[in-house]
Every structure is written in C-alpha cells, then in structure tokens.
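Support case: calcium ion complex. Customer-provided input:
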Amino acid sequence: MKTRKLLGLAVAALLSLNAMASPEMTYTPQATTFKVTTLGTARGVTLRLYDQGLGGKATKTLKMTSRPIARTQGGELEWSVTVKGDLKGKFYTFSVQEGKKSLGETPGIWATAVGVNGQRAAVLDLADTNPAGWDTDRRPAIDAKDLVLYELHHRDFSIDPSSGLQHKGKYLALTEPRAIAHLQALGVNAVHILPSFDYASVDETRLDVPQYNWGYDPVNYNVPEGGYSTDPYKPDVRIREFKQMVQALHRAGIKVILDVVYNHTFNIDGSNFQRTMPDYFFRRNADGTYSNGSGCGNETASERELMRQFMIESVKYWVDEYHIDGFRFDLMGVHDIATMNAIRQALPDDVFIYGEGWSAGGCALPNDQLGMKANIGRMAGIAAFSDDIRDALRGPWDGDDKAAFLGRVTGNEESIKFGIAGGVQHPQVDISKVNYSQHHWATQPTQLISYVSCHDDMCLVDRLRASIPGITEDELIRLDLLAQTAVFTSQGVPFMLSGEEMLRTKLGVHNSYNSPDSINHLDWGNLERYPQVMAYYSKLIALRKHHPAFHLGDADLVRRHLEFLPGGDCLVAFRLKNHAGGDRWGDIVVALNANKQPRTITVPDGRWTVVCRNIAIDENGLGTVDGGQVTVPAQSAVIIVK
Ligand code: CA
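Agent response - structure generated as follows:
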C-alpha cells in the first residue's frame, strides 16, 4: 500500500476514511457524527433521520452547523452535527439550502450504505458486514502481463435455468462451485463485472419482476447495487454478499475488476452531486449549457478539485473495503489525464487500471488533456481498449454488416499486427496502414487491451452472421476461434466477453443495455452443444498462460523477440523467437488465415511440432511438420513450435 496522498486537498473528514468508512458519517455506539461539504453560498443544511430506507416520516430533523474549509480553493463549507445514542440501523438524508430553495433530499455523495433504491443513506458499522475469514482475504498476485480478463454481467451469467446456479442474477452466483469451476476451466484469472455500484435503472422494490440494465447510470458510487443482492432493503446484505463474491473469487485465484462510471450521473437535477454542490461537479460549455461528452446528458468535471478528490477516494475505498483488484473506467476519455495519473499514483501498483480511451461526444476540455487512447503514452500504468485490433478483425464500429479480416476484407492485416505487438512501436508495423491510430500509442504492451467483442455492439457470433452473409455454422465456429486466437496470442492484455466460450448470441441485438433475459442470458446448454468451442477457448488460454512468449510484458522484449513473417491477403503470421521471455519453446510460429482456401507460409528449417491446427489445440503436439512451406488450413490458425 502506498502512502496516502491527499494532494493538498480539502475535506478534512476524508482523513478518517479508513477508520470510519464514510467521510460523511462516523458511527460509534455512543454517537454518530454527520458531515457534508457544500458550496460557500449554502444557507443551511438539514439532517433527517428515518427508521426506514424508503417511506415513513423523519423521526428527527436537525439543523447542521457550518465552518469554512481552510484548505479548499473555492470557499466551501463543511456542515456537521453529532447525534447522541446508538443510531445503527437508522437511515438519513441531507437537504442543502441555496438561497431560499432546498435542493432536495440526498443521501450525500459519500454514502457507503443505503436503503432500497439508494434514496437514503444508512448508519451501520462496516465491520459487521465482513464475511467469516474476510480479514485473511488478499488480492491474488497476478502481474498485469499475465492477466486474462473476462467481462461479465451478473444477470447474463446466471439467470438462465441452464446455468444450474442457485442465486440467479445475484452476487452470490459467483460464490457457487459451478460458477467458479467454469471460470477455472476456462482459465480466466480476472472477472471484470459490469457496473455493480448502486445504479438507477432497476427498481429494487420490484425485483420479482424481470428487469434488466447494464447499469451505466450511477446513483451512489460507493455502495453495491441492491438489485444483485438477496435483500436490497437491508443495507448490510448487499455489502456482505458483494464481499462474499470477492472472497470466493479470490480463493479461486481470480481477481475482481470493477467497471466504474465516474464520467456522468443518471441525471443532473436528481443527482447527489447536484443536490450537494450545484453545478460544481459538471462541466459546462461556454454558452452555459451542460456539456455531454458521455452521450448520457452530462459529463463530470474530473479536473475540478473536489471531483478529482472524490474519484481518488472512491477507488481507494473500493480497494480498501472490498479488496478490489482493478478498475475499468467507462469513457475514460471524458476524464482528464492529470486525474487518471493521480488515481494511478494513489492505488497500489498491482491494482490494474484500464479504460475506454474515447468519449461519446465532444467534451468541454481539450482532447490533449483527456484520457484518450492517443494520450496513453502520458498515462504510465494505465491501459486502453484497442478498437484497432477489434475492428480489424470483426469490422468497423459504424456498421454491423461491415466485415473486416474475418470476412475476408483485405487491408486489415497491419492493424492486426499492431494489436499483436501490443500497440508498441515495432519496426515491422507500418503505422500509416493502421486503421485508427496515427502513432504507436502504447509505451508498454500491458497498456493495450486486446479484444474482439465486449458488452457493447454485437457479440462475436452475431457480428459474424451480420457481416458475412450465408455463413455456415462450421465457418462461424472456425472464424470465432480464429478471432480469439489473434486476441490470445497478442502481446496486449487479452479480454473476452463472457459467454463467447458458449457461442453466445444476442439474436442480433446491437445495444442490449435494457434487453430482456431472452437476449442477454448465457445459454449454458451450448457447452454441451458446442463442446469444441469451450475446449478450444480453454486450451488457447492455457497455452497463453503456460508460455511467457505470448505475454512478454515489455516493449523492448516484444521488439527483440516478435518477428512478423511474410503474410498475404487476410493472412498474418508471426514468430516468437529465441526463447522469448524465457519460454521453454525456442521458436513459436502463429499463422492466422481468414481465407476460404488454405494458404502457405514460409518458416525456418527444422522439425516443428504442431500445437494448434484445424481448430484443435494440444500443447503436447498434434503432429510434426518440416520447415520451409507450411500449410495453414482455411479460416483457422496454425501454431507450430520447436
Ligand atoms: Ca440501485
């Protein structure tokens, strides 16, 4: 753990974060102190105490008293009140008055426990939420270069009866032996869960009715979502169950990565930010309108002192309290570079950070200050998704029916090579022929997330069907496995969407953020219907994990050991030579052929062992070939070693 860096800031109460969990509420059995920070213009703050998280009248209404915060730039005020007696189990809200107007009740920006639907914060002792054995829970030690990321939505994963899981759509599903066994059989070592902080779009009072949302609409950033708990009314339950999930995955050697969405809130007026410090946390355009770089109606202002501090303290809180192993920043391109670097500095080195290096609209901050993919070179220790290799494989983002390499569209080979090299400068990658990037944006290969599909857009099967008219099932499977072979033999950090190993389909739905279970669910029955798919995925991942040559983790090593071989139209081949990364194999050749006919490549002389051919993988060998001309069967990959 690095020393806490407060960046010369604000909010003295944050100092008590580790001990007390929330800078806005400090509980002891004798008394509870409430604190909230407002703009200097606030005229008053009222604290209301309730017996329930929703409904009923306040049992107490108290005026808070203010004092200026000496160290903030903006003349903010800190309001506080201490209530005697044991308040455990009670709920509370703040109401800030600006001028004659109350901004409305809010649980504050720093609630760490809430009632149903996150409308009121809860008084509890976080120590009561720790499952047995939590004090010995540790983040698994896995280097960034060794990670294999698996992106999962709780409901997708477990809701279908075919999953055989008991806790359908819940955190606890990931504690069940069948779930853990599947992840271990597949070989992934980090589960990246879609938004699991408290979000707005699922009504937690109606969980008996099927509801679905990805959850990109934050309400309370520092509380787990209630919809994935077995009882959203009880504030401790979602916290304990979330920890049980983390604990079970950690015991299985699997990291837990949170998808965090600090770039926007569900709405402006109802947001806890706006009800606490109006217009402080959101960027505006020159004409006074709210900027919308998130595409969701607003964008937060990470460059402002208290927003930056909020983001830093929030991720630290998830690491400290929930033992989180990494963060995936939604629309990282909305955040400023300085904030992302401050977050990197504030977190332990082994906490992995990556994000979407783009925004969903113009931001009210210049591009060269934003956490864009092109600026990753100025963000050491932070990675970005490579849409370069993704779209070179499956086709461009702006049309589901457009094909690329997999659909035998030539001209994508260099972009695939760019991804294979982990986005770092490489003498054989001609950047002028790469689809989106004008420079080798990764300084280290661990700064590039290599993937072909994620929750956004069509899943791989649907994209192949949409972009390759008349595709047969055999071709579909061959191309699916070919695509993932590119991903999992690349020097970047590999990432896959959950269910691809089950040949998942979303029935052609491009944006399934609120689609029903019938679209989003994983069909576990496909594991039996298409056993060759799961077998290939798991052996491919094992091959990567067993062989350091595929994940060198260092740009100089990549330049020294990775050599591209002459390829051709829709044919990319490369060699990992001279025991790359200390690999026991002296030489590895990978060839990716998307053509409908076999192709040949030229490899150095000698006797080679085939470990991948015709959608079969066996590290012990599927046979041998002699050097010189080697055949690569249609629409598949060959890997030979010696
Ligand atoms: Ca919620």
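Residues 117-118, 198-199, 202, 204, 219, 225-227 surround calcium ion (CB under 6 Å).

Case will auto-close in a few days if no follow-up is received.
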